[in-house]
Design a protein that fits this description.
This protein is α/β, with parallel strands linked by helices. It folds into two domains: 116 residues, Rossmann fold, CATH 3.40.50; 112 residues, Rossmann fold (3-Layer(aba) Sandwich). Helix content is 36%, strand content 23%. It contains nine helices and eleven strands. The strands form two sheets. A six-stranded mixed β-sheet has the order 3-8-7-4-5-6, with helices on both faces. The chain has a five-stranded parallel β-sheet with strand order 2-1-9-10-11. The radius of gyration is 18 Å and the shape is elongated.
Length: 236
Amino acid sequence: MKVLLTRPLDSSRALAEALEDEGIDPMIWPLTRIVPTVATLKLPPNTGGLLFTSANGVRALAALTKRRDLPALCVGKATAEAARNAGYRDCFAAGGDARALADLAQRSGIRDFFHPRGRDTAGDLKTWLTESGLRVTEAVVYRAEETGPPPAPVAAALARGSVDLVTIWSHRAGAILARHLTGAGHRLDNTGLLAISPAAAEPLEAAGFHRIVIAEAPNVTAMLAAIQAYSTGAGQ
């Protein structure tokens, strides 16, 4: 089965490796690229823990500071793995979304957090934690820029109708993909769409996909499980 991955390049490459191990053929078209927004950063002196809502946030902060001694509370397993790979020693994974991360933070006993994040976020983590009496300092350390049209092999595969499943990971990415697909003449009548959430799928509801599938949870683990189910026919 041929699957199109549309996350930023580093994330898509990691997913591609996991899928290849399952005998699935991945193609990559990063709809956005991650661009740093700050050149220097100093953590607030009262910081007791870090909140990571994405692997992009991990990589961005790791490039800005050598400190690795603070506990890293991560939105899910993939982000926690990225934190461990970046050298953070104490990494904890929540259930895969911002609400689960807020619950983990509330149970941690830590009072002051630093949250390095992207310009666009899903969920209001700071508000949720502030309402429970915790203190959160946020810093926008990266943004996701659009990359442009698909690479030639991806465009050709879409035109032939040989992509079995397209993955979409956010509402913004869905809107970007919808713009590229409009009037492009791609054959999607045999192509499925897998979205991480209903909001991510919404811009593509009229794009002409054979079927739209929503992951059971808004996280990488659920998306990988859905891809595997689709490849065996269980998700079709």
